[in-house]
Amino acid sequence: MNDVNKEAETAPVSDTPAANGEAEASAETATPSPDERLVALETELADVKDRLLRALAEAENVRRRTQREREDALKYAVAGFARDLLSAADNLRRALDSLPEAEAPDERTRSLLHGVAATERELLSVFERHGLRRIDPKGERFDHNYHQAVFEVENSEAPPGTVVEVLQPGYVLHDRLLRPAMVGVAKEGPKPAQPEPANAA
Predict the structure, then answer these.
(1) CA angle 86, 90, 93 (to 5 degrees)
(2) 165: domain CATH number?
(3) Which helix (H) or strand (E) holds 36?
(4) Per the structure, how many domains does the chain have?
């Protein structure tokens, strides 16, 4: 009987399926090595850093765009109001052009013209202070960015493409066109007829 117990104690343990399953499960749940953990953490850190830099760049772009829009809003806020005042400036100029001072019949009329001229000067001065500049391009080269050609004139005294008459001045608010100048532009006149060569006899 004692011999049987001894044999049982010294007998090798057999590889049962249950024992094999436990060994595989423990191998799968084994913690990764320090090198593997370090690589995984570095990868994760690089990803987080990339996302952070992208978020910071996007925030900076939004800040700059908002600042630019705010500056533009302040800079061009008076555009509608200024456009409405242009007709008043035009009418002051028409009043002055309708009666030159030299043709004024009396002193009262001359005083009235002086008052209208002073009002126009003050209005243009206010325009200038607020970034509104008058375009009066007579004698300048036609520029389609600031001028609108209404008609062409055959004018031998001015080179073709030169503004020879301004029907209505234009205005620029800071660097933005508010109203183009309405102009007449010189065009090349008809070429003189060249004499026909005499036929050889």
Answers:
(1) 140
(2) 2.30.22.10
(3) helix 34-76
(4) 1
